[in-house]
Structures are given as structure tokens and as C-alpha cells.
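Thread: quick sanity check before group meeting

JM: Hey all, I'm pulling together slides for Thursday and realized we never actually wrote out the predicted structure for the chain we discussed last week. Dropping the sequence here so it's in one place. If anyone has concerns about the input, flag it before I start.
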Amino acid sequence: MTLRHPKQDGLTLIQILIGIAILGVIAAVLLAPRLLGQAGRTLQTRANEDIETLGIALDRYANDCGDYPSTEQGLKALWEKPQTPPIPIDWLGPYIQIPITTDPWGNPYVYIRPGIHDRYGYDLLSFGSDGLEGGTGDAEDIASWIRRDE
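JM (edit): ok, ran it. Output follows.
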């Protein structure tokens, strides 16, 4: 009588690990674009919120001082009394507690007074992820004169 090993049915540990790795790669290929797209939208939303917050602070500044800060004074006038003309007499700031100087991509917000698009007010914008004017998707400009909810 010879002893025979019964035929083993099932998968080896290596086969299971290879299967898990293949499923992981497939999941990454399918989910990565969605996750990256969501991250881009989150940064755009944050830039919109920053511009809205800065706009409220700028309006408070203008209400107290009689006008918006000049381009030279910039957004810094919201948390430090300007030392360049026109020096406001009735500065009651700071008008914003935590200075917002850069957009979510690390680029400075662009502030222009008087604005090109709002000649009686100001233009405030972020050039998006690429830091360049124009663009689409994550690189789309986010500006105070463009309302995303309209």
C-alpha cells in the first residue's frame, strides 16, 4: 500500500496576496481621479471662502475709513494700520483676526484698487492651482466679481 497525499484544493498564500494586489491596483486606477478631483474642488471652495472673508473685511475697512485700501497698501491694511498714503484717520482694525495672504495653492491673492472689473470698488482674485491667469478645472481663476453660485 502506498500513501498518497490527497490533492490539495484551495489557494496558496502567495496567490491570495497577488489577487489582493491586483484588486488594489484596479481600485487605485478607478478611484484616484475621483479623489484628486474632490481635493481640487475643496481647494477652490476654500479660495472662494477666503475671498468672501476678505471682502467682508474690506467692506468694514471702507465703512470706517471712507474708502478701500489702495493697491499699494494692499490686504495688509486689514490687520495693520497703513503707513503709506492715503493713511486712514479712522482705522479701527484689525478688520480680520488671522491674516489671509496666500491662496490654498500658496500664491498671493491679487488685490487691485480701483478694480479693473469693479471700478468703484476693488478686484480680488486667485489665479488657481497653476498661478497663471485663465485656466480651467483646478487652474480656473477665482475672483471677487464672479459668483460661483449664480
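AS: nice. Strands lie at 110-112, 123-126, 142-143. The chain has a mean pLDDT of 84.
JM: adding both to the slides.
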